[in-house]
# Entry
Amino acid sequence: MFCYEQPLNERIRTFLRLEHLIARLRYHQADESVWGRRAALDALLDILNVMSRYDTRAEVSKELGGRYASLEKLADREDVDDKALRQVLEELDNLGREMQRMPPQFASYLIRDNELLNSLNNRSPIPGGNCSFDLPTYQHWLSQDSDRQSRDLAAWCGHIAPFEQAIATLLRLLRDSTRPAPFTAKAGVLVHNTEAGTQLIRVMLGDASVFPEISAGRHRATIRFMEYQDKKLRVRQSQAPIEFRMACCRF
# Structure
């Protein structure tokens, strides 16, 4: 199945961006080549810039607290697996405590106080701005032995791991909150009335020849299935009926 997701608020949008960027960081962090190191630092700077623009620590802490409070209310229900619920509550509590120990605005300070990261960040808007002749200090760092580079990366990424765990847990709970249901888009389009509080729309397809464009507001979502019409990859709306599964997720 091919899964396409559309967040409906800024908090979930930020969490999904960070999930994507952290996955990219971890992938390139395992690559010890020069290009792997470059790609890892590019991903790290993207993460730090996102966290600098938003108070990610407060947003994650607030979401963890909200999920803990809502799940705690289920403890007295007979149809709830008490052991599984306690495990989730303990996980949320531990993650919340970890967030409280995080230094506020660490991402901004890390970029500002680290000369190499600051130089890279200033040059990143320029295409090819981190070439060796622009940043000899970067070329020098890339020439260090792999163990030294790995230690530096681990130190710079030290505060990211708690966010990685917390965001992964919150998105897992959100995605698992609703079971996907079958739908059919007649002539390639479906208009669906969403329930109040929907935070994430997930569209799952078994057909790789089309993809959905999802536009959604507080009460309604429109899913249009598009397809390539020529070798220049121009797209048009499919006119065929498309069967798919959709989940409108909310806590």
Observations:
- The beta strands are 2-7, 181-185, 189-193, 200-205, 211-216, 220-228, 235-237, 242-249.
- The longest strand covers residues 220-228.
